[in-house]
Structure prediction request, 362 residues.
Amino acid sequence: MTPELLTTGTANRRSFLRTATAALAVPTAAALVGGALPGTAHAAESADLPDFAPVPAAAAGPALNAQGYFVGRIKGNLYWVTDAYYQAMFLSTRDGVVLVDAPPTIGHNLLRAIAEVTQANGRPSKVTHLIYTHSHADHIGAAGLFGRRVVRIAHSETRRLLLLDADPNRPVPTVTFDDRFDLHVGGERLELAHHGPNHSPDNIFVHAPDHATLMVVDVLYPGWVPFRNLAVSQDIPAWVKAQDIAMSYPWTTLVGGHLGRLGVRADGDVQREYVADLTAGVKAAMSLDPTPYFQKYGPAGNSWAVFKTYLDAVARQAADPVIAKYTGVLAAADVFTLDNAATMLESLRIDSGLLGPFSTRP
Prediction:
């Protein structure tokens, strides 16, 4: 599926770099007092940073415009916006706009993208409804841009979490639900569902049945390996299950919330295979002989060194063949697979009782 192009021009990072350079030119407090403060962190020189495998062409999204975003039609009146890091989705209805998520990295470009679409189709540009997929600031941290009168819809757990966070950039939802919620606005509809915890306790599935589209965030990563530590998910077994739940929906287009392109069903199949390979690799690697680790650190009583070195070795042994298999298939296979293997290892130890040499003493 190729979304309809609504913006033109090539990706332009020069404007971003100019802005960043200008920001660096502003005197800091440390500079004004004659030097860096003790303990101040310094940015690494680019020459000191590691090299990684090239990003496969299939993982790349559409070119961004000069303002740093792309907006395209998914189908009918359903659109998506990306800055190549994050994604949002919106419905243009005859009564206004229904927006799903407000990532701060896209920020005011959300307003520009919506204006671009609605000026072209003659529909209202005002965002009347804002759906939160979950409470995390990296996905809804620009929600405050849309004023107080917007109807904010989220899971009930999202409301509880946002009340605790008390972040003015993430206003508390005004409408909540526990299991399912059907939203009808201006002749369009979205089906919201909570299938239990996964990436977060409150993460929901947003289905646009008339457009064969599913938006579920931080679960599937089209063209890429999952973000570090298996998407920093709070419940790894439930996160793995959520991939199957996502694939059970009858979608042809996926909005995953991250990176530069939309997903197709083959992306879900590849990620589930990646996770299965990672799981199998960790299980196999847990047969690693622990003797050298106990001999090295046991006499000194350094128990944590035993754990660290053994578990790091297991994660590396599990990760290496997965990295080799998926480099060139999934972007960043060499970036996050070791982290993902370590997280899968901890989940299998804690959630599944795969304790290896740390199991019940005979």
